[in-house]
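Hey, quick one: can you model this chain's 3D structure?
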Amino acid sequence: MSSRLAQKTAAREARLAAEARTRRQLERQRRSWRLIGVVLASVALVTLAVIVSGGNGQSRSAATGGQVQGAALSNALFAGIPQRGTVIGRPDAPVRLVEFADLQCPYCDEYAVHVLPALVQDYVRTGRVQMRFENLAFIGPDSVRAGRVAAAAAQQNRLWNFVDLLYLNQGQENTGYITGSYLRRLLEAIPGLDVPTALSASRTAAAGAALTLANQVAAQDGVSGTPTFLIGKTSGPLHQYQPSSLTPAPFIAAINHALAGAG
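Sure thing. Here's the predicted structure for all 263 residues.
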């Protein structure tokens, strides 16, 4: 090998080695950021949820047969907050937010990842807002299959845990990824939930009736797509709300406005 060629080869190898060192350094930084995020408050929860979700639903391992992602964060988010069927939050919370969603809907997933943690931490946990989830299973058979299990989780007051984990592990819609084993893995990641009872309940007429009722409620409220939101005083009429973006800021503004009116 000529000295000129040897120099070029050495230079290339040095550049590749430097790039590898940079990649390793960045990965170490990312790991540190994730560890820090676990112990931070609501803003960090939102950021870390984005990292866990992968952003596009394609890399979430539970949807492809692997482990459930985000279980520790999700469980911490809802720990200690009262749930009653489809409702989470204190019964005497002055404001209610209703979400109409399909468990396969990618925009509902975006809301769950980017917005929900901040609202739960800052408004639901503090007793100012209660939330209700209306499950519209219309995208396809996977929506119905997941919706029936969600209804069964609601019977054990764990619906919000299940829905959140499903969004954190959402796959591509109508690809058949919502299998029995996938649903079981999600249920097994929820503390305090009786998995065999939930799976049995998901096959009952009551689980199907819950989906039918949600669609009836949506029709009565003029809901035609997902996600759609209603907001207002818990003791008064609710009004349909369409946020300008699926980010916390417009929801916070709308909730604060409702809270001011509920005072």
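One thing worth noting: Residues 4-9, 18-61 have pLDDT under 50 and may be disordered.
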